[in-house]
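Example complex used in Figure S2.
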Amino acid sequence: MGSVNIAQARKSYGALEVLHGVSVNIANGEFVVLVGPSGCGKSTLLRMIAGLEAISGGEIAIDGKVVNTLAPKERDIAMVFQSYALYPHMTVEANMGFSLRLGGAPKDAIKARVAEAAKMLGLEDYLKRYPRHLSGGQRQRVAMGRAMVRKPKVFLFDEPLSNLDAKLRVQMRSEIKRNHQRLKTTTVYVTHDQIEAMTMADRIVVMNGGVVEQVGSPLELYDRPANLFVAGFIGSPSMNILSGRLENGTFMTADGTAFAVPGMASFGNRDVRLGIRPEHLCLDPNGLRAEIVTVEPTGSETQVMMRLGGHDVVGVFRERVVNAPGEMLPVSIDAERAHIFDPQTGKRLEA
Amino acid sequence: MSEAPTLKRTGLPLPITIIGAIVLVFICLFPFMWMFGSSIKTLPELYTVPPIWWPETPTFGNYYKVLFESNIPRYFLNSVIISVGSTVLALILAIFASYGFARFNFRGKPVLQSFVLVGQLLPTAAIIVPLFITLRVLGLVNTFWGLILVYMIVTLPLSVWMLTSYFKAIPVELEEAAIIDGASRIGILFRITLPLSTPGIVAVVVYAFVTTWNEFVFALCFATDSSVKTLPIGLAEFSTEFNTDWGAVMAASVVMTLPIALLFFSMQRLFVGGLTAGATKG
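Predicted assembly (633 residues):
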C-alpha cells in the first residue's frame, strides 16, 4: 500500500512557474481530492505524481520512495483519464489486461485478474466488446477496471466524470467511493467540481493559482474556510461575502444596514469581509428588509437572490417563497455562524 | 391522410446531380475504356477512320505478343521489386520521422519540417543531374538499389507530412495511458499508434507505390540496362523510329494498370477513417 508525500513541488514551463511549492501528505489508503478552478495546477500536480510531467523542484515520494526521476511504470500507480483513453482497437478484456500483458504476466493470471475486476464493476458481459460499442458509463468503468487490474499502490483520477451526464455522474461518484471502501487503495482524485470533492473525499486539497489554499476534511473546509477563496469555492450556492465595518460588535455595510455579530467584539473596530452561507439566512418578520431580485424554487427549497446592504445576497429557505421580484423580504442573519475575513489578506479572522 | 412530409432537398435538383456525376465518371474512365478496347483490336482496326468502338473479332494477339515475345514480363518484375522496395523503405523511415515530428518537441523542428517539404518542391529536372552524378559515384546506376533510393527520396517528404498529421490526430491520452500501463515509446508506436493509423499508412503506401510505379524520367536516366528497366520505359520501347505498335502498347498499358487498380480496390475499405471512434469522449 502507498502513502504519497509531496514536498515543495514546483513546476515551471520555461520562465513561467505554474506550481509554486506545493506540499501535501497523503496517508496510506486515504481518498484525497485536489480541487480548484481551471488552471490552478491540480491536473499538473496529478500528472507529476503519475510521472507524465517532470518535476521542476521539490520532491514527490510514493510509499516512502522518492520518485522524481522514475518512469511512470516504476512508480506503481494507475491513472484514469478524463477522456477514458481506452485503446479503441482492443476489446474490453485486452484493454484491462494490457498492462499485465506488457509486464509479462502469464495468460491465466491476466484472465483471472481481469475477470475479478470485471465482476466488481459489472462488466462481465462486455469483455469481448470494443470500446466503441459501450456507453459513456461503461467506458468509464472499463477505464477504472484497467487501473484496478494492476493493483497499484496509488490510483490517480483526472476528472473522470466530467464527460458523463449529470445523473450518471452521481451514480459513478458513489460507485467510485464504494470501490475505494472495498479496495482501500490510496487515491488522488482531481476535479473542478466542489460537490464531487465534498461527497467523495476523506480530505480535500483546495488549490488556486498554483498554491494550496487549504487542506482539510470536507466539513472542516465548509465550516471553517481559511480564506475568502475557499469560502467562495466550497459550497453551492456559494457563500455570500459582505464588505463592511465591525464596530462594537455590530457589522455595518456602507449603506448603513447593520446587525449585531455576537462574539466578535474582540476584533475591535475595523474593516472586514463578512461571509454568510445561504442557508444561514432565515425568514424573520422582524429581520432586515431585502429586495427580491429573483426567486428560484427547486422543490425541496427555494433560492432567493436579493439586494441587502448594497450586495447581491443569495438565501436558501426551506419555506416556499411566493413573493414577486421587487417586493421586500424580511430576513435575519444567523450571525453566530458568520465568518469574518481580513479585507486585505483575505485570511480568516478568529475570535 | 397525406403521407409524412419530407424535408426539402437543398442544393441542385436530383436529375442534374445524377447526369453531372455520370458525365464526370465517363470523362474519367474514357481513356481506360479506349485503352482496353484498343488492346483487343487487330492492327487494321486500330487505324480505321472513323474509329470503331468495339472490335468485330476481339483478339488477344496483342497480349500474347506482350507477354511472350517482349521484355515486358521482365520489366514488370523489375517494377515490382523497385516499387515495393522503395515503398517499404519510405514507409519505415516515414513512420519514425513522422512520429518524432508529431510527438516530440525539439530544437529546430519547424526548420526540419519545412526542409522536408522543400525537398518535395524541387522540380525533377533540377535534381536529375546531381542525382545521376551521385549514383554514378556510388556505383548505383543501373541497379535496383539506385532506383529504390531515388524513389524513396521522391516519395518520403509527402509521406512524412501525411503521416505526421495523421499521428497528431490520435489523442495523446491514449499514449499517456499506455505509458502508465508500462509501454515503452517503441511499444506505444507499434501497439497503439500504428494500429490506429491504418488509414494513414494505407494512404502513404498507395501514394508511394503508385508514384514509383508510374515514374518515367528517373527510370529513363538511371536504368538504361534491360535488367533494371521498369514498365513505363518498357512501354516506350514499342515505339520505334519508324512506327508504333499501338496494339501492343495498349495491351502492355492494361498489364501495367492492373496492379494499381487491384491495389486501390483491395485497400479501399481501409481508407475509411473512424478507427479511433470510441477511444475518448463519452
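The longest strand of chain A covers residues 281-297. The CA atoms of residues 66 and 118 of chain A lie 33 Å apart.
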